[in-house]
Design a protein that fits this description.
4-stranded antiparallel beta sheet, Vitelline Membrane Outer Layer Protein I, subunit A, Jacalin-like_lectin_dom_sf, 8 strands, lectin, mainly beta
Length: 120
């Protein structure tokens, strides 16, 4: 498994930039809430000492909740989604998709609307 990579920032013009507080070693859970756009995201991860940390939920805790629990040897191989206009907001993440090495997938939002992005 490769070292975690940081890419970003992504999101709308509202709110504040967010980041994890401890250097991550392993992602344990991802929770995404939304409907026609992404409303919030929350991460549970382990640091190098094996201590578990929860970051988020960042955003508004509304919409449908989707959860991805990762096994000890499982890791994210792809993050993709779309961004674009949503109501009066000019740029917001409208959909997200996480894929793991074990084939688990979590999707949320309105994938058909917006400009696509992908990180593998």
């Amino acid at each position: 498994m490769s070292k975690p990579v940081k890419i970003g920032l992504w999101g709308g013009v509202g709110g504040q930039p967010r980041d994890v507080k401890h250097a991550p070693h392993r992602l344990a859970r991802v929770e995404i809430s939304g409907a026609d756009a992404i409303h919030s995201i929350k991460f549970t991860y382990e640091d190098h000492a094996g201590d578990q940390h929860v970051e988020g939920a960042w955003g508004a805790p509304s919409g449908n909740k989707h959860t991805l629990d990762l096994e000890d040897t499982e890791y994210v191989t792809e993050i993709s989604g779309t961004y674009g206009r949503w109501g009066s907001v000019s740029s917001i993440v409208t959909s997200l998709k996480f894929v793991t090495n074990n084939g688990q997938t979590i999707e949320c939002g309105s994938a058909g609307s917006g400009v696509p992005f992908m990180s593998q």
